[in-house]
Write a structure and sequence with these properties.
- The protein is mainly alpha-helical.
- The protein has a domain at 36-125: Serine Threonine Protein Phosphatase 5, Tetratricopeptide repeat (Alpha Horseshoe).
- It has helices spanning 2-17, 36-47, 54-65, 73-85, 89-102, 107-125.
- The longest helix is centred in the last third of the chain and has 19 residues, at 107-125.
- The protein is globular.
Length: 148
């Protein structure tokens, strides 16, 4: 109600002041579509930059995990190498957890494929998998009342 009244008052004032209404149309430019290889290359270069710090690594990882995709093994490896350069194993494990979570309902098929592809890099960097350190099972989970 107030919005309608305010709109009528504003249009009446414009008419009395002699101001003509102009509409501004916002045009959003869409860039050209990026191929999967170019996308992977862009994030590999982002994580491979010299002088990258933990905050920038987290930003890149959050951007990737916020998209509707599972990062490719090359991008995951690049992120792991960046974590190793800043000596942040907790971030590397969190990155693996995020990538596993992005597999969604296809965890049984996609996640083993990713582990197979990135396992040489994990061994090279000394980063344990989520299953090796027991983070795949909750430590303090309550038993179901139906199991008692």
């Amino acid at each position: 109600m107030l919005r309608i009244t305010a709109g009528k008052v504003a249009s009446a004032m414009r008419g009395s002041l002699g101001v003509t209404s102009t509409r501004v149309i916002a045009v959003r430019q869409h860039g050209t579509e990026e191929s999967a290889e170019a996308f992977d290359s862009r994030y590999e270069k982002y994580f491979a930059r010299d002088g990258i710090d933990g905050w920038e690594i987290r930003k890149g990882m959050n951007d990737l995990l916020g998209m509707d995709l599972v990062p490719s093994p090359k991008v995951i490896e690049s992120g792991l190498r960046a974590c190793r350069r800043v000596n942040d194993i907790a971030l590397a494990i969190r990155w693996l957890e995020g990538c596993k979570d992005k597999c969604g309902d296809q965890k049984a098929t996609i996640y083993p494929y990713l582990l197979e592809k990135i396992s040489p890099t994990l061994k090279e960097l000394g980063v344990p998998t989520i299953e090796e350190i027991g983070y795949d099972k909750p430590e303090l989970a309550l038993k179901s009342v139906y199991d008692i």
